[in-house]
Amino acid sequence: MKYKVHIEEILAKDIFVEAETRQDAYNYVQDKINNEEIILAADDFTGCRFVDVFTATPVECRKRDFEHL
Prior knowledge:
By secondary structure, the chain is of the alpha+beta class. It has helices at 22-34, 58-61; strands at residues 3-11, 45-55. The protein has one domain (3-61). Strands 1-2 form a two-stranded antiparallel sheet.
């Protein structure tokens, strides 16, 4: 039987901002992200989680990227 395991890697970083309101702080950081002035990278890796395990569909079973145990 072939299974598809969904994995999510988590990148996280705390950014400290002086602002009048929470929304202003959010908007400031969002603008920095949109302008690629803040980019999370491998150094910001905080973990991963296995979200779910599914039985692979017939189409997915034909793919060659399965790992064998």
